[in-house]
Amino acid sequence: MRGKLLSEAAKLNGASENARLEIERLLKELEGLYKEISMSEKVSEEQIEAVLSYREKLFKIVYG
């Protein structure tokens, strides 16, 4: 997923270093959230909303 997002962002944003760094940061945060959720007994609504918020953030960076 990381490679595809970075590749798409580079095509659409002219290989913007800021976009690449922001995508990397968001993906690291998302990975941490996935680890947190995997250790939880139950997935909360807040956790689901947090995961979905990353979709919107990544979409904005890639597609503006």
Structural key phrases:
3 helices, mainly alpha, single chain, coiled coil, 64 residues
In brief, what are we looking at here?
The protein has 64 residues and is mostly helical. It is built from three helices and no strands. Helix content is 84%, strand content 0%.
Written overview of the protein:
The chain is mostly helical. It has one domain (2-63). Helix content is 84%, strand content 0%. Helix 1 (2-13) packs antiparallel against helix 2 and helix 1 (2-13) packs parallel to helix 3 (45-63). The longest helix is centred in the middle third of the chain and has 23 residues, at 17-39. It is elongated. The mean pLDDT is 84.
Write the layout of secondary structure elements.
Layout lengths: L1 H12 L3 H23 L5 H19 L1
Helix pairs in contact: 1-2, 1-3, 2-3
- Count of distinct structural domains: 1
The helix-and-strand class reads: mainly alpha
- Helix-strand topology string: HHH
N-to-C span: 19 Å
Proportion of residues in β-strands:
under 5%
Radius of gyration: 13 Å
Overall mean confidence score, pLDDT = 84
User: Shape from CA axes?
Assistant: elongated
Name the poorly predicted regions: none
Number of helices: 3
Coiled coil: 9-43
Keywords: Coiled coil
